[in-house]
Design goal:
Number of domains: 1
Shape: rod-shaped
Number of strands: 11
Helix content: 10-25%
Distance between the termini: 105 Å
Order of helices and strands: HEEEEEEEHEEEHE
Structural class: alpha+beta
Number of helices: 3
Oligomer: single chain
Amino acid sequence: MKKKNPFLQGAVWLLVITMLGVCAMAGNTTSAYYTASATGNASAGVAKWSILVGGEDIVGVTDLTTLEIGLFETILCDGGTTDNNAKEQHVTEGLFAPGTKGSMAGLEVVNASDVTADVEVSIEWVYNDAPANAGIVTDLKTRFTLADIIVPLTTLDPGDKIEFEDTDCAWSWAWGTDSNGDTAIGKAAAALAGTASPLVKAVVTVTATQVN
């Protein structure tokens, strides 16, 4: 009978046990590492394009919009009364007469857009020169000292505005300087019976362009 080597048998059993242990450990091992995940999105709207003149949005009307501003709707007293510079109370609203004056005070051009804009403003005085008005218009021109106004190209950021002051586009009809001449104008106006109204108007032209 062949004699077994106890050392060899022990080595074999040790190998078997070691392999079983390794297998058991391998079955219970988990991989560990940093991980992260996320879902996101980005969105954007469309920038608004809006230019306000006297509170009125001119965008969408035309690229070059001509507006008639109520220059004669807030006529003030000018001499001959203790209410000088107060709102005229003795002349029908919207009409001018000796002792009245006004200006563009309070008119604003506002960039209400979400983008920067280049804005240019011009104010032009226009007389109603129809043949029937020839005489009265000629006389009116001697009463008023009027000058056209151009506001040069101005860059307005969103929310910025151009404001007109008391001296901008100011006009006045002096009180008591030529009573006979003033009376003649009033008489001619009565003969027209309002058919030629308005005899004078201020036309405001505003051009606005987005800055690239």
